[in-house]
Each structure stands twice: as structure tokens, then as C-alpha cells.
Amino acid sequence: xxxxxxxxxxxxxxxxxxxxxxxxxxxxxxxxxxxxxxxxxxxxxxxxxxxxxxxxxxxxxxxxxxxxxxxxxxxxxxxxxxxxxxxxxxxxxxxxxxxxxxxxxxxxxxxxxxxxxxxxxxxxxxxxxxxxxxxxxxxxxxxxxxxxxxxxxxxxxxxxxxxxxxxxxxxxxxxxxxxxxxxxxxxxxxxxxxxxxxxxxxxxxxxxxxxxxxxxxxxxxxxxxxxxxxxxxxxxxxxxxxxxxxxxxxxxxxxxxxxxxxxxxxxxxxxxxxxxxxxxxxxxxxxxxxxxxxxxxxxxxxxxxxxxxxxxxxxxxxxxxxxxxxxxxxxxxxxxxxxxxxxxxxxxxxxxxxxxxxxxxxxxxxxxxxxxxxxxxxxxxxxxxxxxxx
Length: 390
Fold this sequence. Notes:
This protein is mostly beta strands. The chain has a single domain, classed as TolB, C-terminal domain (Neuraminidase), CATH 2.120.10. Helix content is 1%, strand content 37%.
């Protein structure tokens, strides 16, 4: 069990924006509710650079752990199955920020057995592909069922994003980084003629022309000057996003450049939001000391400076039953320091996150079980669960 204690600290470091009259005051969530003393306990180990833990929503209570090298393993009742559920290591370029980065199960997975992956292809480009589980062998994916959905060129080897998930609308959302290189040298975050630095939204149940997907109604740039797949933009390297089951809001953790890490909340059904990169880093003008205007930009709900961490890992809004007093808090962490914080999901913006737990882990992802309890992966190879240590 790892638990170095809980400290309520103010992490919000909003710099005064040159074009604004004053910085916005930070607002933290209330401390009057009884709060749980959290800890993490080991569930399973022996993974190779795990980057994601998720569930299939199929009633089997299985967890799926995604390895950077291109394999996915099943964990059930605390045991890791010896054979991989999916193995695309031969198709995956892995190392650093490249590899098998995302996995999403279709909302009707119980019936159609379809799932989707986001991985770095052997040429270094981002590949979105669909697979189907063998009907007679539900514990394994049929490699011959592969269906290429989308390929996105990558100018550099970093900032690949990689998270995927289906919203309540049934459409697949995909997070992409700005393509890498310090400071977004190609300006991809603000450009609407590229899929880099975005949240994309596509319909994988219908084809359109030569594409193996279609553009859903409501996408903000459908039929306009921008690329139709774009749902939101102005992102640097979103390392995990998730949907809040209670209302469908999207929570996006975006890794910062040199000063700030940020967490943003996108209201359900709100298309076309610009999160500001590379005009702004967090709530400060970028580069530091330059002048900018926040007009038309959506600033994060929370940020923290690099004195407290260096790479944010996005989590989930807690909707489980183990910690009733913490329902409605969004949990996230930092890969470099192992700290875990929370903000109130339906609270004001901005907020000062509360530090819930200080660990020694390299937190590469958070995930949920089918009963909405929270799990984490440590890049060194272990799956953990958040528990009550009191």
C-alpha cells in the first residue's frame, strides 16, 4: 500500500494575462464534507509499460490493461490472464511517447464485439483501427478482423495524444497532440486544416464515400473551412480525457510546455471550443511574458505549476460507491511526482485542486471498473486501485 498522506494545498498558479485587467482569483472546493483518507493497493503486476486501464462495459467485470508495446491483457479477480487479449506489437512502433496509446470498446460491444485502438504505426503515424473479438473465443481478438479507420501523419515523434472514448451520443472521440516539437512550431493547435492538437468526433457505424466512418451531425466545422472531424481544438498533448457519466461533460488533461499543466472541462454537446494552445499555456500567455488576448478561448478549470509536477495524467469524475462523500470529484495526477488531486466536477472555474494523495508512482493512466471504482497504472508495470485507508 502506498500513501504518503493528504495535504490540502492551493495549486492554481494563474498568471495575469496581458490583455486582461487582472488575474482571476482561484476558487477551491468546500472542505466541510467528510473526506476519505485515500491509499492505493496493488491489484496485478508484471506489465510492460502499461499506459491505460479500462473496462468493456459487458458485465464481465474484466479490466483491460494496455501496454505501450502493443499488447492488451485481461485482469479479472485480481489475476492477469497469461495470454494477451490483443496483440498488435508487430504493427506498433513503441518507445517514448509512441506505442499503443488508446483502447475503446463499442457501446454495443456485448452484441457486436467491436473495439478500437489508437497506436503509432511502423512509419510513425497515428493509426485508428477497429477489431472484433472472436465469437467462439471471447477472450481473444481476431487479428484478421482489423479495419483501418483513420491515419494521421505525425511530423515529430512526440505529442501523439492517444486517448479515445465513446460519448453518450454513440460517437467515437479521439484526442490528438499537436504533432510535437517544442512550442508547436507548425501552429497545429490553432489550425483548422489539420487533425493535430484536437479532439475529433466521428461515427464509426456508418461509412461516407471513401472513408470508413462518417461525420456526425453537429460537428462544428462540418461543411465549412475547417476539417469536419474536429470537435474541439487548441490542445498541446492531451494525455487522457474522459466522460462524466452523470452528464456527459468531457474532462481533458493537457500536458504543458514549460510552466503549467492544465485540466479543462467541456460541457456535454458544446462543439468548437478553443482551449488556447499555443496562444496560451494554461491561463498564461505563451511564450511567457508575451502579450495575448483570451477572447474566444476557453481557459482551464485548474492548472498547476512545474514546481509541483511536470506532466499531468487525466483521470475520471468519481461515480462509484466506495467513497460516497467523494462522488462528483474529478481525480487526476502527475506522472513525474505521483501526486493525485481533485476538483469539484460541477464547481466553479477556476478552482484550486486539493491534493488527495502523494505517491511514489509514475502515474500513466487512471481507469474505471464497471462499478465505477478508480484504478491506476504505474509505468513501471503495476495496476493499482484507489481504496479507503482510514
